[in-house]
């Protein structure tokens, strides 16, 4: 082959190789782009690569453990799912178990991040925060003199909890008045008494006209048993009708909600269904028929802070008005109708994972909709706060004389309406005993 021909051939070969490399690169690029985004092996490799880069190159990487990094990654992962799913390290998982068992150490306020502020959702009954007069909606600005913005949510909760008889200082802003107040609270064992009477005690005196009153503050492990004790006291006193107050009840355990419902329902009645994924995508909870059934006129009080398990109870009793004679009174409920399952992990940590959604017996979805009362009785935010003040020992002391008089004068219009309804039903029953079951509203 001549030199000229060899040069032409070599040039052609280089060009061909270049074209081949170009198209090969393009094919690789497009195939990489087309690779499934949920390929687990590629994703595991990415996670491992980032883990090692942080360990090797982060300025304080020598102070980190693999567990620190993995726990941080898991917290971030669960936080991207929905507001109710979370990763709990062993310490937080232990705290959750103590809460549901009904006892733990702290100041007794339930908080969450709202508009980037550490906000009080509710003070727990008979707790240091409750007795001091801290209210729902109050914003915690400082904890022990440090800005609350310096703590992530988990760290803030750890600061609030601790050994009994130790102190924590809080600076709290009340948005409704823009008032800022300092509190020096002494931590205590928080016993979560979830069943109360009208006077915030556990004595359950029978009211006028034979009307009983029971308030559930949340659904813990002892709620059903404690409610049985309350119902026995009231029935022994001759209760003829009942008010079940679920206002400000943030929810709790699904099993306890079912056990409360079945006190008013015959055996086998559908209470709630859950629908999700997994090997049993649909499950039903039905009344088991244990214990004496409460079969009398019933009013259930709800408001915008009635959530989760309390919405299950309200929705079930509303759907089965043909069996319960229940009337739902108050305001549209919160609309938190998803199931969080607790999944323990091998190192003592756990996942709180949203695994299903609740549906009432008539298959109404609760999540993001809530329960619409049969009779809507609105309350202003100011009136609700006044009623909360009256429930809190010590809260009235934070008011001046004029404010105290104004709070004392506020009527609980929702409770008044419930009493009037039941008095009317009982009066009608005395005149027409065989028609009392008809004095209910039609099922939804």
Determine the strand fraction and express it as a percent band. Answer: 15-25%
Secondary structure category: alpha+beta
Mean pLDDT: 85
**Helix content percent band:** 25-40%
The value of Rg in angstroms is 29 Å
N-to-C CA distance: 95 Å
Q: How many beta-strand runs?
A: 19
Give the number of helices: 13
User: Can you tell me the overall shape?
Assistant: globular
Low-confidence stretches: 1-34, 436-444
The biggest beta sheet, please? 6 strands, antiparallel
Would you mind describing this structure in some detail?
Helix 8 runs parallel beside helix 9 (309-319). Strands 3, 4, 5, 6, 7 and 8 form a six-stranded antiparallel β-sheet that branches. The N and C termini lie far apart (95 Å). This protein has helices at residues 3-34, 40-57, 66-79, 90-101, 128-132, 153-160, 223-236, 254-261, 309-319, 321-324, 381-391, 401-409, 413-431; strands spanning 86-88, 103-106, 109-114, 117-123, 139-143, 146-147, 167-174, 179-186, 188-191, 195-196, 211-216, 241-245, 270-276, 282-286, 298-302, 326-330, 338-344, 350-359, 375-376. The model is unreliable at 1-34 and 436-444 (pLDDT under 50). The protein is of the alpha+beta class and 444 residues long.
């Amino acid at each position: 082959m001549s030199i000229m021909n060899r040069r032409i051939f070599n040039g052609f070969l280089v060009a061909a190789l270049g074209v081949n490399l170009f198209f090969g690169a393009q094919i690789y690029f497009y195939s990489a782009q087309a690779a499934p985004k949920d390929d687990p092996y590629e994703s595991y490799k990415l996670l491992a690569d980032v883990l090692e880069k942080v360990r090797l190159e982060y300025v304080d990487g020598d102070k980190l453990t693999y567990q620190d990094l993995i726990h941080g990654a898991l917290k971030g992962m669960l936080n991207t799912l929905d507001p109710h799913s979370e990763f709990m390290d062993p310490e937080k998982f232990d705290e959750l178990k103590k809460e549901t068992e009904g006892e733990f150490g702290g100041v007794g306020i339930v908080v969450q991040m709202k508009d980037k502020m550490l906000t009080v959702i509710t003070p727990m009954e008979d707790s240091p925060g409750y007795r001091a007069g801290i209210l729902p909606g109050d914003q915690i600005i400082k904890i022990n003199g440090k800005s609350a913005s310096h703590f992530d949510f988990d760290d803030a909760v750890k600061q609030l909890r601790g050994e009994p008889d130790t102190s924590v200082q809080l600076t709290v802003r009340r948005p409704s008045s823009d008032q800022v107040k300092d509190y020096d609270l002494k931590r205590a064992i928080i016993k979560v008494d979830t069943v109360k009477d009208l006077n915030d005690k556990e004595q359950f005196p029978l009211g006028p006209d034979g009307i009983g009153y029971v308030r559930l503050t949340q659904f813990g492990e002892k709620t059903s048993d404690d409610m049985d004790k309350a119902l026995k006291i009231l029935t022994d006193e001759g209760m003829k009708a009942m008010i079940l107050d679920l206002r400000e009840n943030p929810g709790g355990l699904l099993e306890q909600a079912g056990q409360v419902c079945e006190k008013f329902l015959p055996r086998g009645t559908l209470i709630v269904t859950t629908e999700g994924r997994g090997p049993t995508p649909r499950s039903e909870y039905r009344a088991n028929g244990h214990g004496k059934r409460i079969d009398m006129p019933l009013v259930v009080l709800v408001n915008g802070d009635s959530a989760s398990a309390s919405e299950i109870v309200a929705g079930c009793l509303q759907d089965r008005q043909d069996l319960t004679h229940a009337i739902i009174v108050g305001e549209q409920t919160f609309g938190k109708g998803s199931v969080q399952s607790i999944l323990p992990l091998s190192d003592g940590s756990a996942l709180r994972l949203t695994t299903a959604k609740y549906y009432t017996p008539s298959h109404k979805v609760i999540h993001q909709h809530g329960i619409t009362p049969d009779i809507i009785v609105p309350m202003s935010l100011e009136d609700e706060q006044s009623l909360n003040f009256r429930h809190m020992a010590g809260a009235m002391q934070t008011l001046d004389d004029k404010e105290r008089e104004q709070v004392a004068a506020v009527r609980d219009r929702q409770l008044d309406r419930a009493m009037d309804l039941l008095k009317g039903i009982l009066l009608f029953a005395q005149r027409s005993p065989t028609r009392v079951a008809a004095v209910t509203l039609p099922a939804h």
